[in-house]
């Protein structure tokens, strides 16, 4: 359970920092009066969406952290056998990185006011994202053809479970991306578009980070790293 | 971060806190059914939770009939008894308490108490309720599925949960339960995002975090905990679905059933327990923290006194929330673990008693020399303190490994957790309903019916659960539909069991009176006015009662003070509303 506990430690540290920023030592019974109002309601609205996304990502992070914990716990049991990962997985990983990079370019373009490059960035990201999904499905088909069905070994089952769950989140990301694309082609006001692309980009970057973490776990690198580190002491 | 200027009150410009565009309902369906108004969603949540809670109440009657009068009711077989236990536990903990505290009170109180028009994402909020409703439908449908609901116990421990010997194990029962839980978690996450973001972003001008009522702090912290803890249940549920449907072996060891070796092998039932309790223990505080917050507010209002140690109360809430994530294995002492782990978890468990005790002392010190009004919300709040203390004290016994091991499988544990996370939160819920019903309905609940309801519930709950500790101490095991003849159990335990069962029937029946009161008072209750308890918090300062969609009419409230200005020397009344700029403008709250 060390993975989820580490994750929680990070969250709690963030929470502690946030509390100190919010004057948790103040004495409200001595204070009186109302502070001046914030005027920029647009900024505050954008902030709301961003914070909402941030909280959602924390929940997703917790979900995958717990899965990883369960993975390591199950891995410690004697019947664990790892299996050869299909090469295609690396191509898919490349696709996901390409998707994130394209989105990031689109975001920078949109912030700089270039509508057309932003649109093409979004389109490329969409194609790369779809390619990732189909690539993952192809990996599943390959595994089934090799005789590694869902219940073959615990490692294989975990592989299906983790890739499946990650894939579901990717599908959600594709829906968000499609909606962003739709508004990118409808609108000419780039200033409205940039915040939407920003939310999309944050989500996809996060899913990329989760995916890379999952790759590290599934390939067994995580274990190697832990072993190497423990030999240092 | 905002800075305070003590004399700023007069110079404050009109409210410029960003107002929100609300979705305005156009017909009956969008106004009352698929509503995006947090208050309507709150009532939908509460109504569904209470209805499904009544099912769980009837199940507890049936269990008590079996335990009090064994061999009397032929329709209660051992299988049926296990199904009753499972459904009673799961419904009460998840579908009633969690949904009612966070979905019900969270939705109603958060926007009103922090001075917002609605939740941050009203549409997602609506989806949250309907997914919860779907989860409840799936759960209830398992009663009508072939083989009936699952009888795996509310903890759903594998391997037995998905084996043919357990009711529903190889039928639809366990599947429907797991699917329902997964749905519940998805729905809750949508709601939870709203509660957190609303508290962070939608507070009225002047409502700093440290001016928020403790109810909001508690609901906020509980929601954060739930958002982080429910994924563990989600993971456990999905993995068990894989084991049951696809034949994987996450949790399933090699097993022989009816002489045949099953295809499972190598999995770890303990892994499930870790995942389940990683959710399960925070869950205890997910239902306890909102109760803490609500009780703090009730006590302050009905004793006309400033809450004692507001900052400590806030910190205690946050610390309890954080600590509750590192105590989960105290539910697993008897599963076998490294003694050092047992020591660690016993220590963390006992440490939680410190912030909890701070809260109890602060409640008592708030009451000390207060102007205590024994209104019904106050009675329930006082009953909560006593009951939570009682249940918490037996928790100190059970938190120690050496004491827990012999007691773990006895009725002592049943008595303990019903006191601390069954009766106590329910008492807080009743207090809260009596307290806020006037705001919801514009009418007071009937006082006489309320008093009868309170005394029967309070004394009755003790008649049920206090003797149960002794039943457990002599060694009567829990989870047994019938104990038969056990040499170490004295004859008189049977009479005690019968007494407990009769008390349970009476307490259950008293809840019918409560439901009747809720319905009767909508029409026949006394008009309450806007602020019948003369409370300071914002929800009582709405221009109209019940508050309309959007809550505040033209202008959002501006907050000038914290939530606990009772009996302030020199003030005209014994309370100062949070939006009252006194002493700068003595004529009080703005519209």
CATH topology of the largest domain in chain B: Cytochrome C Oxidase, Chain A
Q: Specify the biggest β-sheet of chain A.
A: none
Shape of chain A: flat
Write out the strand line-up for the largest beta sheet of chain B, numbering strands in chain order: 1-2
Description:
Helix content of chain A is 79%, strand content 0%. Chain A is mostly helical and 233 residues long. Chain B has 14 helices and two strands. Classes of the chains: A mainly alpha (233), B mainly alpha (591). At the A-B interface, helix 1, helix 2 and helix 5 of A face helix 5, helix 6, helix 7 and helix 8 of B.
Question: Quick recap of the structure?
Answer:
The complex is a heterodimer of chains A (233) and B (591). Chain A has 233 residues and is mostly helical. Chain A contains seven helices and no strands.
Could you give the topology of this structure?
The complex is a heterodimer of chains A (233) and B (591).
Chain A: H1 2-21, H2 41-75, H3 88-111, H4 115-145, H5 154-186, H6 190-218, H7 221-232
Helix pairs in contact in A: 1-2, 2-5, 2-6, 3-4, 3-6, 4-5, 5-6
Chain B: H1 28-33, H2 38-68, H3 78-114, H4 122-141, H5 172-201, H6 214-246, E1 256-257, E2 260-261, H7 269-302, H8 310-323, H9 339-367, H10 376-399, H11 401-407, H12 411-441, H13 447-473, H14 492-524
Helix pairs in contact in B: 2-3, 2-4, 2-14, 3-5, 3-6, 3-7, 3-12, 4-5, 5-6, 6-7, 6-8, 7-9, 7-10, 7-12, 8-9, 9-10, 10-12, 10-13, 12-13, 13-14
Q: Can you tag this structure with a few keywords?
A:
heterodimer; A: 233 residues; mainly alpha; Four Helix Bundle (Hemerythrin (Met), subunit A); 7 helices; 0% strand; B: 591 residues; Cytochrome C Oxidase, Chain A; two-stranded antiparallel ribbon; 14 helices; 60% helix; disordered C terminus
């Amino acid at each position: 359970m060390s993975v989820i506990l580490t994750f929680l430690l990070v969250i709690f540290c963030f929470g502690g920092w946030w509390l100190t920023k919010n004057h948790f030592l103040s004495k409200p019974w001595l204070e009186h009066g109302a502070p001046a109002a914030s005027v920029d309601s647009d900024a505050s609205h954008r902030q709301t969406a961003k914070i909402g996304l941030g909280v959602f990502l924390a929940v997703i992070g917790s979900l995958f952290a717990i899965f990883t914990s369960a993975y390591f716990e199950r891995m410690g049991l004697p019947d664990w056998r790892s299996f050869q990962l299909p090469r295609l997985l690396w191509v898919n990983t490349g696709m996901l990185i390409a998707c994130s990079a394209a989105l990031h370019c689109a975001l920078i373009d949109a912030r700089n006011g270039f509508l057309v490059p932003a649109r093409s960035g979004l389109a490329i990201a969409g194609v790369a994202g779809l390619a990732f999904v189909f690539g993952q499905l192809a990996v599943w088909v390959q595994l089934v053809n090799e005789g590694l069905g869902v219940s073959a070994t615990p490692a294989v089952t975990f592989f299906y479970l983790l890739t499946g769950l990650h894939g579901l989140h990717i599908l959600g990301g594709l829906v968000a991306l499609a909606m962003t694309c739709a508004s990118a082609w409808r609108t000419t006001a780039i200033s409205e578009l940039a915040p939407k692309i920003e939310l999309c980009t944050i989500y996809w970057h996060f899913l990329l980070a989760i995916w890379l973490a999952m790759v590290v776990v599934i390939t067994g690198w995580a274990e190697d790293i832990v072993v190497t580190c423990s030999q240092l002491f | 971060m905002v800075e305070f200027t003590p004399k700023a009150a007069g110079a404050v410009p009109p409210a410029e806190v960003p107002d929100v565009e609300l979705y305005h309902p156009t017909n009956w369906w969008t106004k009352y059914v698929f509503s995006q108004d947090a208050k309507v969603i709150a009532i939908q949540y509460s109504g569904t939770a209470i209805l499904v809670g009544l099912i769980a109440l009837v199940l507890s009657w049936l269990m008590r009939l079996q335990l009090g009068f064994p061999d009397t009711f032929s329709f209660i077989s051992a299988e049926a008894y296990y199904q009753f236990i499972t459904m009673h536990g799961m419904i009460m903990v998840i579908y009633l308490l969690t949904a009612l505290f966070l979905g019900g009170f969270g939705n109603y109180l958060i926007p009103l108490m922090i001075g917002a028009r609605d939740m941050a994402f009203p549409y997602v909020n609506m989806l949250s309720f309907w997914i919860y409703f779907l989860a409840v439908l799936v759960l209830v449908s398992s009663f009508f599925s072939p083989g009936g609901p699952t009888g795996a116990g509310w903890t759903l421990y594998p391997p037995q949960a998905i084996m043919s010997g357990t009711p529903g194990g190889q039928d639809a029962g366990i599947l429907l339960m797991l699917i329902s839980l997964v749905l519940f978690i998805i729905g809750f996450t949508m709601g939870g995002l709203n509660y957190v973001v609303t508290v962070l972003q939608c507070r009225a001008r002047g409502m700093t975090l440290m001016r928020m009522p403790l109810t909001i702090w508690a609901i906020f912290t509980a929601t954060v905990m739930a958002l982080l803890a429910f994924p563990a249940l989600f993971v456990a549920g999905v993995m068990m679905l894989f084991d049951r449907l696809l034949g994987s072996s996450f949790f399933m060891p090699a097993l022989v059933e009816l002489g045949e070796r099953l295809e499972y092998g190598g999995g770890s039932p303990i892994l499930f327990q870790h995942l389940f309790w990683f959710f399960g223990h925070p869950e205890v505080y997910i239902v306890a923290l909102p109760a803490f917050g609500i009780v703090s507010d009730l006590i302050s209002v009905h004793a006309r006194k400033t809450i004692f140690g507001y900052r400590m109360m806030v910190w205690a809430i946050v610390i309890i929330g954080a600590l509750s994530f590192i105590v989960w294995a105290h539910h697993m002492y008897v599963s076998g673990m490294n003694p050092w782990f047992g020591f660690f978890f016993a220590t963390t468990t006992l440490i939680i008693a410190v912030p909890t005790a701070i809260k109890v002392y602060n409640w008592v010190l708030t009451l000390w020399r207060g102007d205590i009004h024994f209104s019904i919300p106050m009675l329930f709040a006082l009953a909560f303190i006593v009951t939570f203390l009682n249940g918490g004290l037996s928790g100190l016994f059970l938190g120690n490994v050496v004491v827990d091991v012999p007691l773990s499988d006895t009725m002592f544990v049943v008595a303990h957790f019903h006191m601390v996370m069954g009766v106590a939160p329910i008492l807080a819920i009743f207090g809260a309903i009596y307290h806020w019903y006037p705001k919801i309905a514009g009418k007071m609940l009937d006082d006489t019916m309320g008093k009868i309801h309170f005394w029967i519930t309070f004394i009755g709950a003790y008649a049920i659960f206090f003797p149960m500790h002794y039943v457990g101490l002599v060694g009567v095991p829990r989870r047994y539909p019938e104990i038969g003849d056990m040499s170490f159990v004295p004859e008189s335990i049977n009479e005690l069991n019968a007494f407990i069962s009769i008390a349970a029937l009476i307490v259950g029946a008293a809840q019918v009176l409560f439901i009747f009161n809720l319905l009767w008072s909508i029409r026949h209750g006394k008009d309450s006015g806007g602020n019948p308890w003369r409370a300071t918090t914002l929800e009582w300062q709405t221009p109209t009662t019940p508050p309309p969609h959007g809550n505040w009419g033209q202008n959002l409230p501006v907050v000038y003070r914290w939530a606990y200005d009772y009996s302030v020397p020199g003030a005209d009344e014994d309370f100062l509303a949070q939006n009252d700029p006194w002493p700068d403008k003595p004529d009080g709250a703005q519209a």
